[in-house]
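Fold this sequence, please.
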Amino acid sequence: MNSVLSRNQFFVREHVGLFKAASNYDVFDAQTGEPLMECREERLGFFTKLLRFTDWKRMTPFNAIVRDMQGNQVLRVSRGVTIFRSQVKVFNENDEWIGQFRQRIFSIGGRFDVLDVNGQYLCDLRGKWTSWEFYFERDGKELARVTKKWGGLAKEMFTSADTYALIISEAVPPTSPLRQLILAAVLCIDLVLKE
């Protein structure tokens, strides 16, 4: 696992653009503002690009690759065409499948089950319907949080509404594969629920 994932606080900023089909993100260190990773949707097909400009945007497939600043793959997030609920697969730096997210159909605010490759439950990802806040929870304990409510350096560096913070609890060990799934889930929130 890439050592960049051992940090506990990140900023994620979506690239804003007029008439853009691909979703692209930059990930920064929350303490220093240093760029750490970039996420790009590469090689979009013609029909996918076309559908991204319609009401069917949320149903289109995606394949987003997260790379460190040296160009090494950190993880990959992939989903095929979806109709009712998303099932997203996550792959590590060696492109080995490490886990998945399964969207709950009738959830207010958005909810995913975070699962390992065998379909075993790891944690929940729950959203609030009243705001852009999401929590990773297991057994009533918060493992991580994604929020747009952030002060300090975030207000100084970023003013875009497409920027949010990921805070991972110290309870998640720095070398835990769950960190890869948490970072991947942040992108899934935006790609699946908020686009």
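The longest strand covers residues 35-41. The helical segments are 46-51, 153-157, 178-194.
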